[in-house]
Amino acid sequence: MVKDLVYLIPAGKYGKEEIASLLTNHPEIKFASLVGIDLAGNDTDEKIPIELFIKDMDDFYNGTAVQTDGSSVVLTGIAVLNNAKVDMLADASVNWFVDYNFEHIDEETGKPIGTLRIPAYLVHNGLRVDSRSILAQSLEYIKGELLDLFKKNAKIAGLEHINGADVEDIIFTSATELEFWVKTPANTADVEDLSASQLMQEQYWQRTRGSVRTAMEQALMMMKNYGLEPEMGHKEVGGIKAQIDETGHLNHVMEQLEIDWKFSNALQCADNELQTRILVKEAFRANGLEVTFKAKPIIGVAGSGEHTHVGFAAKLTSGKVVNLFSPTNMKQYFLSAIGYGAIMGLLKHYEVINPFISATNDSLNRLKPGFEAPVCIVTSLGHNPATPSRNRTILAGLVRDVNSPMATRFEVRSPNPYTNTYTALTAFYMSMVDGIKAAVNSGKTIEELDAELSKDAGKEGFYLETDRAYRSEHDVFDDYSAEERDRLFSKPPATVWENMQNIKKYPEKVKTLTAGNAFRQELIEAFSAGALVRWKAELLNRIIPENLSIVKEAKALHEADSASDLDLTNWDKINTIRVYLAKDCMLQKSLFTRIKEAIQAGDFDAVSEMQIEMSDKVGELEILYREYKKNMIHIC
């Protein structure tokens, strides 16, 4: 660590002249960079000499200093080739972080070269079109709706301890938990070894060692420097024991880790996550380790989630802050009317929220039964209010502490590290406020709201859909069949195409997200179009070629004159799948070819169906080949 570095410029602490003076007094900060977030969650980064930033600071604040080519980022159908100019507008309402290059030392000061990263909005044709703007403007709309709700309702069920007229401001409390895999470059691990270690629970919360421990400690210490207030770093469920080489260093590292940090307001939460990912990658890279934030880097082994916590608080005229989800009597009730409405709104609209959570092939690979990842739309509150419990098999669970009302929140378990947290939080909060308004305006008691959330499928509700159930305190993986889950809690999409089609299938639910005109319809359509472009490109250029490699690597290992009947039978099964997947014949084209042709023809329903079949066939091929290879090894 280098002393006397400026790691962040806190929101609202300095005026323009003070910022200029601070930067002048720290000549190691050589560059400024406006950080805009496109609709896929990608952040922009450029190097502007700090002297130009100081000289033209007013232009950075009003959005005239920096422009970018919007057709080169994910603003699909908005910033097009013949109308691509996008202005970048600095956001002074959040923290600004300084990103240091510890491999490039300033000769004058002896300190690492720094780049001031300034969160920004992207403006096209006078309208904001970026993910940060969608969240910031949606939160302003929601705040207005809730303040109006409190003005009209002096007393709300479950919140008898506050008066609506005393509510001065609304606070959006949010946090994410970052899971990721680390490994030594070029090393791989056998899926069976990883799976066995997971089943035997050998990794979770175990002691970290060597370079992994060093990198984890450095990342946590650096987070503290940036004011991110880390709470915990630990090993997750995935991984295998590393080996020690002849020099005493660990190699063949393959471990899953998690880092958690404190809550903040929703917009700052998303910015903090972006900075944390940078710090984690740099800390582990400096220790010779690769980091991946993919949701499912290894098929058949635990994926990485990014559980997202959401809540509402109110600031009263007295200055006191109260949690709006917590009821007056924590031991008698699970939630206030605000809390019940919030979870009902999220669950009712999840079909159109899900596209913004799982927009990639990778993200949907994670959401499969058996890996503690949610597969259906259902919540859990606990077995009784007095003794909080946790159900890890559901989509969104209530987190509460009877003795700490400020801790009450919902943990949404479906996001992954590459989920765009800005649009995810937007979708969560916009759907929640719809349910909150319905619950409060219904005038129903806490008992009646609990009955609505807990109703059986087929029973009509005042807000929730009749044919669905929304709450279960059971293990939804083991206590229900797949058919029961689909019937009670909605069938989950299996492909990106299926997921994006829900935006067209449920227009009334989409209207909830677009209320307030922040998450505008054209932005939702642009998000979906961009996701589908990437879906098709990945199928053609990554998934099919990777699967073709799997087919080619499945080679015959037996000799015809010495093979057993079992070897021949196993190989016949394997080769039949290989041919079906990859070999074109006169009478039948391969599955790979048919997928390519369907993409070219624009028949995406067929592409989606064949993608599911391809995934099943490749998985079957890998299992059969492992068994075949084991038998061949045994006789060698």
UniProtKB/TrEMBL annotation:
Its EC number is 6.3.1.2. InterPro entries: Gln_synth/guanido_kin_cat_dom, Gln_synth_cat_dom. Residues 131-537 form the GS catalytic domain. It comes from the Bacteria. SMART domains: Gln-synt_C. It holds the Pfam family Gln-synt_C. Signal peptide: none annotated. It is an enzyme of class 6 (ligase). Belongs to the glutamine synthetase family. This is glutamine synthetase. It comes from Sporomusa silvacetica DSM 10669.
